[in-house]
Amino acid sequence: MRPNHTRTRLLTSAALVALLALPAAGCQTTGVAETTGAIGQAQRSESDWRREADTWKERYTKNPTDPEAAYRYAAALRATGQRTQTVAVLEQATIHNPKNTLLLGAYGRALADTGAFSQALEVLGRAHTPDQPDWRILSAQGAVLDQMGRHEDARRYYSSALKIIPNESTVLSNLGLSYALSKNLPKAEEVLRQASEQKGAEQRVRQNLALVIGLQGRYQEAEAIVRGDLSPEEASTNVAYLRQMIEQERGRKNRKDAPSALKEAARS
Minimal CB count within 10 Å: which of 54, 57, 103, 218? Predict the structure, then answer.
């Protein structure tokens, strides 16, 4: 079960900003105004995003080759859960703008949203170059590899990203989830605590920490972290969701299934 778009998103790794929020790439692009940070879903309501989609759809329809219109329209589509259409818009945009790294990064993330992980890796690999690596893209590549179960490979990408931007909370959060997916919960907690202590760390980082703590049986501590950022109503919703995810994870552990709750965190 996923929380709907009107709830505060619980347990979304910063893919995570990388996989979720269509952040601006660090490389220089042509024809698209870059923004600082992510186009943050948590800062806008679903109705805001739908209005945004309507606004940019008109400009995109008039000129589908316009990279900024395609990027902004896709961001709004993605924020309202229209993942297949997001991929379609960005696929066409990258055909018309094959060297636009901003669009390529967004397209790779959108592909990962739909589970097309191998294609996502190929596209993300074209969104930056070895001589000009983008830490956001490196983190996105790591998140995709984690989804594919290639956790050691993923952590090499996170390590490369952290060499560019040490102690970046979003990358540390992804790294922590990677350890959790490998069932090394103490190490995951250590890294997620480091991530949550960074200046400007997002709420989702602390929520990921709450999940990992809860999975270790420390439910009161986990719930206290969840409640720390939210209104009472939001906290109650998210605590209930946290409990559900933990119970699902415990059940799967008993059956030796894949860690779905953690993959939910890495995919959202």
Answer: 54
